[in-house]
Amino acid sequence: MPETISPASNDRAVLLIDCPDQKGLVARVAGLLYEQGANILHADQHQDHELGLFFMRVEWAIDDSSSDIPDFTRAFTPLAEELHMRWQLRRLNRKPRIALFCSQYLHCIADLLHRVSAGELACEIAVIVSNHREVEKLAAFHGIRFEYIPVTAETRTEAEARQLMLLEESGVELVVLARYMQIVTEDFVTHYPAAIINVHHSFLPAFIGARPYHAAHARGVKLIGATSHYVTSVLDDGPIIEQDVARISHRDQVEDLVARGRDLERIVLSRAVRWHLEHRILCYGNKTVVFD
Is 236 a catalytic residue? Predict the structure, then answer.
């Protein structure tokens, strides 16, 4: 059952649906929205014919002429139960609180901080967490709380307990690993299912692990890439949200791959975070649907 949220003027609601595919789904959802006085602004759907699944995202305006969110929830629940739907109902003007994790490499986190300050990402950064101090001055410049939590193999359990307590106290709903070069445990992941986004500096599933550019150079590949994905308990194996690539040649050394990869990492991570904040992603199995 989705959370109950109050209406607001000049606001938008987003409905995300996945269910077994059958005829008439679009018409029934659109019809109910029409009955509730909703002004549909955008709708997108996808069918997985192999698995027989249907996915849909509908965005509509909330104004004085439409019913409020609790009214829509009450009207939609019977239809959702009849059609065996999993569904989420969200408001777009609500800014989630997020936490940024990083280690020594700051290009991704600096890019995200700039995009938030420029209004490109609709969120509030509650805290920046790092196992190094390099990002402390950047956090201070943006007026964001910084927490230094060192991690070793011996202290990982204690460190994650501190991190989870911090996230709960800060009301964090999304965790972004912006080149956080530590493995998070299964226990950590279970606290934020489909709500931890990582950027990996390779075109997954190729070259998992900590040194993919070195592995790519040793293999002599002609394309390098970066991948943003949701984090699961399996290393670098979560549902992929976005990927991008750059062409390289035999002339490029590891340092060249790293430099070119930084741009890819920034792009794919910021896209993934924006799409998550705009409620454009549905996970199923180990895959995602990313709506336009």
Answer: yes
